[in-house]
Specification:
The complex is a heterodimer of chains A (about 425) and B (about 170). Chain A has about 425 residues and is mainly alpha-helical. Chain A has helices at about 1-15, 20-35, 40-55, 60-75, 75-90, 95-110, 115-130, 135-150, 155-165, 170-200, 210-220, 220-235, 240-260, 265-300, 300-310, 315-335, 335-355, 360-370, 380-390, 395-415, 420-430. Chain A contains 21 helices and no strands. Chain B contains four helices and no strands. Classes of the chains: A mainly alpha (about 425), B mainly alpha (about 170). The interface between A and B is large, with 65 and 61 residues.
């Protein structure tokens, strides 16, 4: 137990040295392993973990979903989504911000990353909001918050990682995310309504559109619907493994990009390299975390934690609330992927021993991860938005996000209180 | 990347173009392979032989080819929260320390994967279906890690890249 805490402390020191996190985790994991067993075993574990993680079939789903998201962005499906949402909601007060949220939700259905969703929708949704005189706080806030839906509505890279760590079925996790994703979208719409109620100037109404124009705009989103139906339908119906679903999704997105905008060789190469970079970045963290976990398991910390919880006399629900509290605090200071990789292996045996469903817990983990993406001081989505909208000050974005963070807390409470929201759809799959 | 001088840019560009093309090709093949396998299986009743292990090999190639590229652009997730408050001299010290430790750690990893390659070679390990030799895979990982060490050493002699959050 003491060794584990020393390991975490050493990891933090190295991380603040500005060593990339994956190396910090790997170094501490290897040295810790050597201390617990011996140097020879540690070195052989190091080679084993790196090789096996790099060549794992289950993990090949990650580059394919990342590629699908990037190709979809090039196919300009994001603009059509926004136009359709705008046609229906734009005339309302705050309607453009609502359209942003709904378009983000739609984009999330074909993209597994929150950061990509925020970056893509930022480019599409910000200019019209600026044109109609939206306040920057609401405009940027709705994009940053809407972007977080990327990892809740399937496909989701974070769910894949969670599924692999806890040996849960990825298709079921994806199915579990659909209704919570819709609940999240509704909560965010509530946050927009609240914002414009308090400050009607924050979001003036846009133009009213006829039903003919609305239906026309809606008919343009068939590409998104088709891709989502293909990938999720295949996974849900058990036709594909997740890797195959992701491959088909990427292939479909490739065809769309090709047909829509005459994908040039250069752009194709850029998209591929960008996807490979993101993949390598994530795998580096995965490898580091796997090495760190091998050390952590040796220290007996996961079991010690389980015993400690069992002896503490806390009610199971209090344990869940405490774990979520830990996540909310950690989410403020740690990057989301590393947070999940470091904590899920510690927490899930506890949660499982208390008799909770790990699919449900996975949805909770995704939910707190979403919150971590928009909470100060290092909400990652906020910084991504700064790259897209450099003129909007950080402070303004965080202020605009407050109602959305409140909406997230409400949603988290709903998902904790009603497990059926997460578990109904996966229960149909068995 | 405009901060770089021409000589440095030569190294960066060569690496990015050469390795970038290989990486792009490998990932594209991974996509085509998965699609061909699914389409072949469901429509022509003929899956690609060894698709499972080819997927694994292409995944490994994607990751390890992209690793030097990610490292070169300093895209690895790093705690740069405090960069806004760190004075220049301290940032420089951090940078030199992080690059040195990083290069050392990556060198150990390079060595371990080479050893793994040796083990595979002696045991004559191959994949299950296509009987592809596994030793070159581990050797390849090792070589690309060695290239990553070179990249980190190049970065060591450059000015630290202060985090402009979100770029």
């Amino acid at each position: 137990m003491l060794e584990a805490l020393a390991g975490f402390a050493a990891f933090l020191v190295l991380a603040f040295l500005r060593l990339p996190l994956w190396l910090a985790m790997g170094i501490v994991g290897t040295i810790g392993f050597a201390y617990q067993v011996n140097l020879k075993a540690a070195l052989s574990m190091l080679g084993h973990m790196t090789y096996e993680t790099g060549i794992s079939y289950t993990l090949s789903v990650i580059p394919l979903f990342v590629l699908m998201g990037n190709l979809v962005t090039r196919a300009r499906l994001s603009e059509e989504l926004y136009n359709a949402a705008y046609a229906f909601l734009g005339h309302l007060r705050g309607g453009l911000a609502m359209a942003t949220i709904v378009a983000c939700a739609g984009f999330s259905a074909i993209c597994g990353s929150s950061i990509a969703t925020a970056a893509t929708m930022g480019k599409v949704a910000y200019p019209p909001m600026k044109r109609f005189g939206y306040k920057d706080s609401l405009a940027a806030g709705s994009i940053a918050a809407g972007g977080t839906l990327g990892i809740m509505i399937p496909p989701s890279v974070i769910m894949i990682i969670y599924g692999i760590l806890t040996e849960q079925n990825i298709g079921q996790l994806f199915a579990a995310g659909i209704i919570p994703g819709i609940v999240a979208t509704l909560c965010y719409l509530g946050a927009v309504i609240y914002t414009v109620k308090r400050d009607p100037d924050a979001g003036p109404p846009g133009e009213h559109q006829s039903w003919g124009a609305r239906l026309r705009a809606l008919s343009h989103v068939w590409g998104v619907v088709l891709l989502f139906a293909l990938v999720m339908g295949g996974l849900y119906g058990g036709v594909f493994t997740p890797t195959e679903g992701a491959g088909i999704g990427a292939g479909g997105a490739f065809l769309f990009a090709l047909l829509r905008h005459g994908l040039s060789w250069r752009i194709l190469a850029d998209v591929l390299v960008e996807s490979a970079r993101t993949t390598a970045m994530m795998f580096a963290i995965l490898i580091g975390a796997m090495i760190f976990s091998s050390f952590l398991n040796l220290t007996g910390m996961p079991n010690a934690l389980k015993d400690w919880v069992a002896d503490s006399g806390l009610s199971p629900m209090m344990v869940i609330v405490a774990i979520l509290g830990v996540y909310l605090v950690l989410g403020c200071v740690l990057e989301s992927l590393s947070m999940i990789l470091l904590t899920v292996p510690l927490f899930y045996p506890v949660v499982q021993s208390l008799g909770f469903d790990l699919i449900w817990f996975g949805i909770l983990v995704v939910c707190v991860t979403e919150i971590s993406l928009i909470t100060p001081p290092i909400g990652l989505n906020v910084f991504v938005l700064r790259g897209v909208l450099p003129q909007v000050p950080l402070y303004t974005v965080f202020r605009g996000l407050l109602p959305f963070i409140a909406a997230d807390v409400v949603r988290l409470a709903i998902i904790v209180a009603f497990p059926a929201i997460s578990l109904y759809l996966p229960s149909l799959m068995k | 990347m405009s901060r770089d001088q021409p000589a440095r840019r030569g190294f960066d560009r060569t690496l990015e173009v050469a390795l970038g093309l290989v990486t792009a090709g490998v990932l594209f093949c991974l996509m085509l392979l998965t699609c061909a396998d699914v389409v072949g299986r469901y429509f022509f009743n003929e899956p690609v032989t060894g698709a499972f292990e080819l997927t694994e090999l292409l995944l490994a190639a994607t990751i390890f080819c992209a690793l030097p590229l990610v490292t070169l652009r300093e895209q690895h997730v790093t705690v740069d929260l405090l960069d806004d408050f760190t004075p220049d001299w301290l940032l420089r010290v951090q940078h030199v320390a992080a690059c040195s430790v990083g290069a050392l750690a990556l060198s150990v990893l390079t060595w371990r994967l080479w050893v793994r390659g040796d083990t595979f070679l002696e045991a004559g390990q191959t994949t299950a279906v296509l009987k592809l030799k596994l030793a070159p895979v581990a050797y390849g990982m090792s070589v690309l890690l060695a290239l990553t060490v070179v990249v980190v050493l190049v970065l060591l002699f450059r000015a630290p890249h202060r985090a402009a959050h979100g770029d």
